[in-house]
Write a structure and sequence with these properties.
The protein is an alpha+beta fold. The chain is built from four helices and nine strands, in the order H-E-E-E-E-E-E-E-E-E-H-H-H. The strands form three sheets. It has a four-stranded mixed sheet with strand order 1-2-7-6. It has a three-stranded antiparallel sheet with strand order 5-8-9, with no helix packed on it. Bound molecules: zinc ion. The site of zinc ion (ZN) has 8 residues, from loops.
Length: 152
C-alpha cells in the first residue's frame, strides 16, 4: 500500500491526510485528501458527533502551487448526524470557507500578489477569469480591513 505521509507533511494543512495524487501533464498536480478528525461539532447545538452520515461529491479546491504545478485538492466534505438535535451537518474545516473553490491560504497568497501586480496579469498566470480574481481580491480586502479596503 502506498504511503503518502511525505505529501501530507508537505501539504501541511491541519487534520488533513493525502490519500492519493495524480500528475496531470507537466503543469498540474491533483492531491486527493481527507479529514483525519473522527468527530465534528454540530453548528446547531454544539454537541460533538462521531456519527458520520455520508460524504458529499468530491470538489476540487485550488491550493498553492508546488514546483510550478497548479495544485488542486480533491476533497469530499463529510456530513455528520448529530445525536443531540438529530440534524445532519457538513463538517467545517479551518483551511477553507464553505462554498469557496479554493483554500484560505490560496486566497491570501493571491491577494498579496494582486496588491502589487495587475489583477489581469495574476488572473492570466493562475488560469482564472479576471472576474474570479477580482472577486478573490475583494473578499480578502474586506476581511483585511473592516472599513473595506479598495485597490489603489
Ligand atoms: Zn446538534
Amino acid at each position: 500500500m502506498a504511503n503518502y505521509d511525505m505529501l501530507t507533511e508537505l501539504l501541511d494543512l491541519p487534520n488533513v491526510r493525502v490519500t492519493h495524487y495524480q500528475l496531470v501533464g507537466k503543469h498540474r498536480l491533483n492531491l486527493f485528501v481527507e479529514s483525519t478528525l473522527e468527530a465534528a461539532v454540530c453548528p446547531n447545538c454544539q454537541q460533538v458527533s462521531l456519527a458520520m452520515h455520508d460524504t458529499s461529491e468530491p470538489q476540487m479546491l485550488r491550493d498553492l502551487p508546488i514546483w510550478n504545478r497548479r495544485c488542486g485538492l480533491w476533497y469530499a466534505p463529510r456530513r455528520f448526524k448529530c445525536t443531540g438535535c438529530s440534524d445532519t451537518f457538513v463538517e467545517r474545516v479551518v483551511w477553507r470557507e464553505p462554498g469557496l473553490g479554493y483554500t484560505q491560504r490560496y486566497e491570501h497568497s493571491l491577494y498579496e500578489r494582486m496588491r502589487r501586480e495587475p489583477v489581469a496579469q495574476v488572473a492570466r498566470i493562475e488560469g482564472l477569469t479576471e472576474e474570479a480574481a477580482q472577486g478573490i481580491f475583494e473578499r480578502r480586502a474586506k476581511k483585511a480591513s473592516p472599513t473595506g479596503a479598495t485597490r489603489s
